[in-house]
Automatic annotation (TrEMBL):
<dbReference type="Pfam" id="PF02086">
    <property type="entry name" value="MethyltransfD12"/>
</dbReference>
<keyword id="KW-0808">Transferase</keyword>
<dbReference type="InterPro" id="IPR012327">
    <property type="entry name" value="MeTrfase_D12"/>
</dbReference>
<dbReference type="GO" id="GO:0032259">
    <property type="term" value="P:methylation"/>
</dbReference>
<protein>
    <recommendedName>
        <fullName>site-specific DNA-methyltransferase (adenine-specific)</fullName>
        <ecNumber>2.1.1.72</ecNumber>
    </recommendedName>
</protein>
<keyword id="KW-0489">Methyltransferase</keyword>
<dbReference type="GO" id="GO:0009307">
    <property type="term" value="P:DNA restriction-modification system"/>
</dbReference>
<dbReference type="GO" id="GO:0003676">
    <property type="term" value="F:nucleic acid binding"/>
</dbReference>
<dbReference type="InterPro" id="IPR029063">
    <property type="entry name" value="SAM-dependent_MTases_sf"/>
</dbReference>
<dbReference type="InterPro" id="IPR002052">
    <property type="entry name" value="DNA_methylase_N6_adenine_CS"/>
</dbReference>
<keyword id="KW-0949">S-adenosyl-L-methionine</keyword>
<dbReference type="GO" id="GO:0009007">
    <property type="term" value="F:site-specific DNA-methyltransferase (adenine-specific) activity"/>
</dbReference>
Length: 355
């Protein structure tokens, strides 16, 4: 039985995980790709019709929920996770195809040079930067699922080409470990990543939605399941996603509506405050979010043991809105970077299940 033939009811963990294996992996801080199996088991036990993925990030959990038969509402405050959700969660059957991919990767339709000039000397060579401008000359003529797929493939291309997948440094040669991804041009990457996204498209029925905005503004009436994977506030520093992925955010929007900070070496986009990223504000933010989704059938929260607040505090906050709270620790290793010398830290990834 294929995933498309499977009844549209939550469950069938093995079939869902087979589908998730096709998901194009984006290097993303806190991605839950490696935790798909325990999450799928929790979701299957919870059951229900509508699932909210309130901090969709890499998109893999929204994709998993769709594969399990939930009607998914995906949300993130960044634009490129929203494009990914539109491409492979909301979209049921549209694909780019070889002909359209070749057009996007072909000659430019105009003489735009925003990326080539703004990021001169940064991240990619001149040919790659010109390609990004050229690709957008075609993407601007697309809409709907085709546009979302093209943006997602372009974002994934840039993330794969950039060492470590983050844009917090200007000397990429420091992290050049010889991987093939670093040798391919962005034009070559785009053809490969577009094919990956086309292969990831599957039909699970209509009714899915993707939103780009603050979780506090997300209104879904009595969902069966709410999955929360907010930024994990570290004991020191912050969990600033815009700082790490500003280029991907800009690329997904062609920097429209984004405020570039010209004085920064990396040409960062101005930070958008989120209370989840800081130890002094995260506890109150979690409490408000739990109250916001108190009417959901089940609240599932991912959180890390090396973050604040601690598991006991989170459990106590959840018990204010749900009578039953189960805490499932899952051994997990986070990699700080993707290069060969990257350090890894073993932690417990807590899965809180509140009913």
């Amino acid at each position: 039985m294929t995933i498309a033939e499977h009844p549209a009811t939550p469950g069938s963990v093995d079939l869902a995980l087979q589908q998730v294996a096709r998901f194009p992996r984006l290097r993303y801080m806190g991605s839950k790709f490696r935790l798909a199996k325990p999450l799928a088991e929790v979701f299957a036990a919870a059951g229900g019709g509508t699932a909210v993925d309130a901090f969709s990030g890499s998109g893999v959990v929204s994709y998993l929920l769709k594969a399990q038969g939930f009607r998914v509402v995906s949300n993130d405050f960044l634009a490129f996770p929203t494009a990914i959700a539109e491409a492979v969660v909301v979209n049921q059957g549209v694909r780019l195809g070889d002909e359209l991919v070749a057009r996007i990767a072909g000659e430019p339709l105009d003489d735009r040079d925003f990326i080539a000039s703004t990021f001169d000397g940064l991240y990619f060579d001149a040919d790659d930067r010109r390609f990004l401008d050229s690709a957008w000359s075609h993407i601007d003529l697309l809409d709907g699922a085709e546009r979302a797929l093209a943006i997602s493939a372009l974002v994934l291309s840039a993330a794969r080409k950039q060492p470590r997948g983050v844009f917090t440094f200007t000397d990429s040669s420091r992290y050049d470990d010889g991987r093939r991804d670093l040798r391919l041009s962005l034009r070559e990457h785009f053809a490969l990543r577009a094919a990956e996204y086309d292969a990831a498209v599957f039909d699970r029925g209509a009714g899915h939605a993707a939103h780009c905005g603050d979780v506090a503004e997300l209104a879904v009436e009595s969902p069966s399941l709410v999955y929360l994977d907010p930024p994990y506030a570290p004991p020191s520093d912050d969990a600033d996603y815009m700082k790490r992925y500003h280029f991907l955010q800009g690329l997904a929007t062609y920097w429209r509506g984004q405020e570039i900070m010209p004085e920064t070496k990396t040409k960062k986009i101005a930070k958008r405050f989120t209370p989840f990223a800081y130890r002094r504000t995260v506890e109150a933010a979690l409490e408000r979010t739990f109250e916001q989704f108190a009417e959901a059938g089940t609240i599932v929260l991912s959180y890390s043991s090396n973050s604040v607040p601690d598991a006991q505090t989170i459990e106590a906050l959840l018990r204010r809105v749900k009578p039953s709270v189960e805490v499932l620790p899952v051994a997990h290793s986070y990699s700080f970077g993707t290069h060969a010398a990257a350090t890894r830290r073993a932690v417990s990834e807590y899965i809180f299940v509140a009913r």
